[in-house]
Amino acid sequence: MASFAFSTIKPYSYDNSKNIDRSYRLKQESSLFGKTISIEKKIFSREVCDENPGLSISNVATKPAVIVPSKQDAENNRKLVAWTSVRQERWQGELHVQGKIPLWLNGTYLRNGPGLWHIGDYNFRHLFDGYATLVRLHFENGRLVMGHRQIESEAYKASKKHNKLCYREFSEAPKPDNFLAYIGDLANLFSGASLTDNANTGVVRLGDGRVVCLTETIKGSTVVDPNTLDTLGRFQFSDNLVVRMDPGTNERKVMGRVKCRGGPSPGWVHSFPVTEHYVVVPEMPLRYCAQNLLKAEPTPLYKFQWHPESKAYMHVMCKASGKIVASVEVPLFVTFHFINAHLERDEDGRVTAIIADCCEHNADTTILQKLTLQNLRSYSGQDVLPDARVGRFRIPMDGSPYGSLEAALNPNEHGKGLDMCSINPAFLGKKYRYAYACGAQRPCNFPNTLTKIDLTEKKAKNWLDEGSIPSEPFFVPRPGATEEDDGVVISMITDKNGEGYAVLLDGTTFEEIARAKFPYGLPYGLHGCWVPKT
Ligand SMILES: CC(=O)/C=C/C=C(C)/C=C/C1=C(C)CCCC1(C)C
Ligand SMILES: CC(/C=C/C=O)=C\C=C\C=O
Ligand SMILES: [Fe+2]
């Protein structure tokens, strides 16, 4: 049986609503050929245009590889900048703001993502392979300074130095020169030496103020300076295990373990939700696959395999005792991102169930293949984005063996596309009403709207800039707010002309209140965090 070992970094005190407990981390350990493999999960982010000269710190162009647009894109003159390597290593400058940035919005939004998908003439194949590009939006007294910069991971530096891939990325692996090198590679895979430290998935602020970029390998955690975007170094955990971490320390403490119920290989966990007292651990039938881990060429599901016969489960761990207090079989599901979880109580206040919401892809793994760069770059006008919904799990806490999974609202409300979600952080683990995410206006090949979902009224309000690709809408609450949706939503957009801008939407009305054009369009980014002004 495979097992999960759990680790959480708990930098914030839970009850302080300003302190967002988003930086939980989970380490999956599994046994392959008698070796323990540890895979750590994050939680749960040139030319300067004339009117906007900015401050170009460095013009080290990244020599983007040649990207040929599809016939349809060429006809529509649609640019593919969201899926094209960032044009230069770094830039910083003040942006011209149209509209009004609220004066209370003082701090820095950081967004991380895989923004460089080639080394010399060699092009990566999957969205998740790219070297990390960190983008910074610094808001101060109604003004906005933008900056972006590549994270100086060992993997990135080595690829630049040797002009070839040197570490295993999500789907790319260095090609061994001969059989001996192949054997060496296998050894390096087991020791973890060949795994990437390219922290391209998310960024979190710890309770002590340190800012850490993350990916799904244990060595990926990288400390950065949120002001300069300097890479400060590897975040070295001082323990040799997995678990919960107090603010100001680098040491995690074991909380507990979850035994996978669906056979020898653990399910892929990209994120998981928590409540005040519980950690909810999903066990997807999309499982790690030993054979695929060893392959140099990508397989259809990369390092994973779909095992519907192994079933799907949700486990609930008590944070205090580490004990599993519920473990139920649920309908098959596919998700990257959990939105939130909260307790369900009966009239007497007794806990009856945990409700856990996620962006659920109708138990269909094809979304993983849809995220190849070739697919993203070859939109033909056909509606090819697989359907997704707010999947709501009900995990009974009375010992019943089965949980349920249903759409929390009619998916047509958000165009049957859904991913890259955020909520008001003060409602993490609590009963909540609103979620923000990317939705779809069809036809499309990727989520192309921003959507505000009202889980009580079961309605969504959608924002669209036709032909553009918006990144994860990030909610920042107004200090002193009493309403859940009192705040702003930040997103970065790459539009159909290949230009880019930051947009601010009012959290309540979901109307645009400000936008600020970037000097050039930026590649698509994933998850972000908020660093309040100190
Ligand atoms: C960007 C994103 O969402 C996911 C990134 C995932 C990565 C970089 C996964 C890397 C891995 C390896 C390099 C080998 C071992 C398996 C796995 C964790 C998939
Ligand atoms: C971009 C994405 C997952 C990112 C992982 O961090 C999923 C997009 C899904 C489309 O519906
Ligand atoms: Fe993610």
From TrEMBL:
Pfam families: RPE65. Its cofactor is Fe(2+). It comes from the Eukaryota. This is Uncharacterized protein. Belongs to the carotenoid oxygenase family. Keywords: Dioxygenase, Iron, Metal-binding, Oxidoreductase.
